[in-house]
Amino acid sequence: MRAPRGLTHRAALVGSIVLTLLAATPGAHASGEGPTGHDGSLVLVGGALKDDNTEVYGEIIDRAGGAGARIGVITAASVPESRDPDAADPDRCSNSACNGAYYSALFKKHGAADAQWIPVDLDHVANADSDAVVAQVNSMTGFFFGGGDQYRYIQTLLRGPRQKDSKVLAAIRAKLARGAVVAGSSAGAQIASGPDMVSGGESYEGLRDGSAPGYFDDATRLGYIPRGGFGFLRSALIDTHTGVYGREGRAYRLAADTGHDRVYALDENTALVVDHPGSTHEELTVLGPNGVGVLDLRHARAGTSPDGWTLCGARYSYLTDHDRYDARTWRVHPSSDKQRLTPAGAAPVPANTDVFHSAANPHGSAYSFRGTARALAQSVVQNTATSSTFESGPRFDVTFTKPATFAAWSSNGSTADTLVGLRVSIAPR
């Protein structure tokens, strides 16, 4: 299941819940206290998890107990069965029930002892406080949150303006604290966010217009939920489908607007595994064919010129398969099978006039931002490369610079895979 182009996903029901959310100030869930560490772990996938991704499915199952793993599948981010016109067609249906059955079958295929749909969705909101469903949750050793619209998880599993845990979510949180794995893809990864979880938007409109608290019918408008999602992850904001939909721009803007100094920008079919989630010592590992961007705003400065919004002093790192990251020290540890890259490219970095892969450009390329960053890393003749947005009025330039501390690692000795500490600035023209 993939996110619709233009936002993370769109819920059908907004109503008074959003108005109440916007009036509330950010706070911790349930107890009113800050997050504490857990003995369990997270496996957060950037969306479009392929059926044959044995590395990621195997990691979830191993962390849930291996051959004895029992996976609870939560698909409340999907439309409910009552809203799916193809609900009766098993080959076409796309709703919470049939998606729950789909993932349950996949986890069994990949070696789990059992996998069951947890029957909570917009048709069964009351089930989130059912003692019988809580008992089902308590019999599981791991959990998987499917994709769709993360706001539906708020509607179904959190309660009231302060977003307190339902009984089912409280049980899942307790299982995580005692060692269970909690995984999710796309919306299922986004919902692990703490305060200021993204609710939609495109990069260009975000850079031009800024972000706002709420959940908007305009798919391009950059929005966020002040209280966030479930708050399983502490060290950063999360974005998903990043390279395919060119979301680096919106991620930088949202972080700058809301005072966050880091974003984990997850690419598709690739997982970010988090040990000690919720603590100040979160340790992360990347698994999969793409990667995870770490957008670092510790030393960034944002402002507004007469022409528009600017950002300077930001950093960009990109981690690939089996690279590790220490959130407390901000250090990247490239996988031992990679070697330090010595730049050898003598050709100029290719021009890039669609750095955020605009939906308005039928000839655009996915992973455009990453592509320019890697091309610069491989260049022996350039230390700086400037790309731009496809849209104008204003057009934004994105300038990549290799500082003295920049480094790249390679799996084959010639092409850049892992990038550490590229400098990024964004300015209108």
UniProtKB/TrEMBL annotation:
Source organism of the structure: Streptomyces gilvifuscus
Pfam families: Peptidase_S51
InterPro entries per UniProt: Class_I_gatase-like, Peptidase_S51
Alphabetical UniProt keywords: Hydrolase, Protease, Serine protease, Signal
Secretion signal, residue range per the UniProt entry: 1-30
CDD domains recorded: GAT1_cyanophycinase (cd03145)
Origin organism lineage: Bacteria, Bacillati, Actinomycetota, Actinomycetes, Kitasatosporales
Keyword Protease assigned: yes
Family: Belongs to the peptidase S51 family.
Keyword Hydrolase: yes
Designated name of the protein: Cyanophycinase
Highest taxon of the lineage: Bacteria
Coiled-coil segments: none
